[in-house]
């Protein structure tokens, strides 16, 4: 049994989750923080509250948005309330009492450059504090040079890097390597690294954990071993020699612009699109190109196919046919005809889209199709922000 499990009380998690959900979903930060504080006052362990009530609640906010049962504004509001709840918990006297005494060592917790998902990192930071570490929480999108300066200045025993969105993995690779060059071991985590942490190993991290409890357990006997000084990241990814990643990311703007131009000529209905719809469509295509680049970087077709099928699910939930993605993928494949790995990724994604028979749809439904009966009037392909 792990320490986290020992600490878990026999509390009625479902009842507390329901009470918090009701407050979070209407954006009532007072009711939400009152509920969380009441849970602590009634004896719930702070780690349990964070990991078995609050974290699943936040994930549910995401799945409700994906299923189109919450609007973007509701998702943003709920996330903001949850951030306030976590801040209130961290300041609760029962939690602060636990931080007294000699810390076990110092840990820097930071999000990868370009990574906005700070909440998972914040939860990790709070749990590590609860387990007796002195934590410097650096927040969202920390530029790697500044992170490195921080490591030189403070000399932590470990740096914990968080990333939720796979497109940040090339930046994560650079950050991991740079941190290791300072002699600081790197623990990574977050959804971007895959449910089994496969990208953590591929990118040479010194450790990975699926959640904050597992991370704290992993460090229970002390920080990770120092990284090997002669680690050569290029050895991890020999396929990068073909330059496909560099060519796709280096021409991303042009790829998006040309795809937009062509879609326009193939779908006359686009002529009537508003400026905002055009902008969102361009952002969506840019997101697809971003994921394509990341899959090339990691040489992992599943990553791109997974993103495209996830996107298809988002569209389907908004009554936009999943097959509307195919023309955009076609146009990208035509432009990238000279790049065998990229065209293979695009072909596999198209195959995955075709596999389940797409629902009957209007012939003019492209990537940019107007949703039918959707509370969100302008959904996008990966849109949540
Ligand atoms: C809230 C949220 C946002 C907020 C973030 C606010 C904030 N302050 O964090 C905002 C609105 C900014 C946002 C933006 C975007 N988001 Co968002 N977002 C989410 C959402 C709803 C919740 C994320 C979260 O907090 N989860 C809860 C925590 C607890 O998750 P967790 O991963 O389980 O955390 C644990 C472990 O991962 C681990 N862990 C985490 N970090 C670390 C670090 C270490 C070292 C270790 C050991 C462990 C560890 O421990 C944690 C605690 O146990 C998710 C949906 C979801 N279901 O998660 C989407 C989601 C992650 N977002 C998504 C997307 C697409 C985006 C955008 C690209 C949208 C857009 N079009 O602009 C942007 C990305 C911008 C960027 N460059 O980062 C997609 C990603 C899809 C994909 N296939 O990758 C998701 C999955 C949406 C969905 N419903 O499917 N988002």
Question: How much of the residues is beta strand, in percent?
Answer: 5-15%
CATH class of the largest domain: Alpha Beta
Tell me the radius of gyration. Answer: 22 Å
CA-based shape:
globular
Q: Count every helix, treating DSSP H or I runs of 4 or more residues as helices.
A: 17
Q: Assembly type of the shown chains?
A: single chain
Rounded to the nearest angstrom, the distance between the terminal CA atoms is 40 Å
**What's the domain count?**
3
Bound molecules: cobalamin
Regions with little confidence, pLDDT below 50 for 5+ residues: 1-10, 357-385
Structural class call reads mainly alpha
The CATH superfamily of the largest domain is Cobalamin-binding domain
How many strands, which pairing sense, and closed or not: the largest β-sheet? 5 strands, parallel
Strand runs, count? 5
The largest sheet has its strands arranged as 2-1-3-4-5
- Enter the CATH topology name of the largest domain: Rossmann fold
Helicity level, as a percent range? 55-70%
Order of helices and strands: HHHHHHEHEHEHEHEHHHHHHH
Estimate the mean pLDDT confidence: 86
């Amino acid at each position: 049994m792990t320490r986290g499990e020992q600490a878990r009380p026999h509390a009625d998690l479902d009842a507390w989750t329901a009470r918090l959900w009701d407050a979070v979903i209407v954006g009532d930060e007072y009711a939400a923080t009152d509920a969380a504080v009441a849970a602590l006052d009634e004896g719930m362990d702070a780690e349990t509250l964070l990991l078995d009530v609050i974290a699943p609640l936040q994930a549910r906010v995401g799945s409700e948005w994906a299923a189109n049962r919450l609007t973007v504004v509701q998702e943003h509001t709920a996330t903001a309330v949850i951030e306030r709840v976590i801040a209130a918990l961290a300041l609760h006297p029962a939690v602060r009492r636990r931080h007294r005494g000699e810390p076990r060592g110092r840990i820097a917790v930071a999000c990868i450059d370009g990574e906005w998902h700070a909440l998972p990192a914040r939860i990790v930071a709070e749990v590590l504090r609860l387990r007796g570490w002195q934590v410097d929480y650096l927040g969202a999108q920390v530029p790697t040079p500044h992170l490195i300066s921080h490591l030189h200045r403070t000399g932590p025993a470990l740096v914990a890097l968080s990333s939720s969105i796979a497109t940040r993995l090339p930046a994560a690779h650079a950050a991991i390597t740079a941190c290791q060059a300072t002699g600081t071991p790197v623990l990574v985590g977050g959804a971007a690294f895959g449910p089994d942490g496969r990208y953590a190993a591929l990118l040479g991290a010194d450790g990975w954990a699926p959640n904050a409890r597992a991370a704290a357990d992993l460090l229970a006997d002390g920080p990770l071993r120092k990284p090997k000084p002669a680690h050569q990241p290029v050895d991890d990814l020999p396929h990068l020699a073909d330059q496909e990643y560099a060519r796709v990311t280096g021409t991303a703007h042009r790829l998006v612009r040309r795809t937009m131009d062509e879609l326009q000529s193939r779908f006359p209905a686009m002529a009537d699109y508003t400026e905002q719809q055009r902008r969102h469509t361009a952002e969506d295509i840019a997101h697809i190109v971003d994921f394509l680049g990341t899959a090339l970087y990691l040489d992992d077709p599943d990553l791109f196919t997974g993103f495209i099928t996830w996107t298809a699910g988002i569209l389907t939930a908004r009554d936009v046919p999943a097959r509307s993605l195919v023309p955009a993928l076609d146009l990208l494949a035509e432009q990238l005809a000279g790049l065998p790995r990229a065209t293979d990724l695009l072909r596999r994604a198209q195959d995955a889209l075709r596999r389940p028979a797409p629902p009957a749809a209007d012939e003019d439904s492209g990537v940019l199709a107007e949703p039918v009966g959707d509370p969100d009037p302008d959904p996008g392909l990966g849109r949540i922000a």
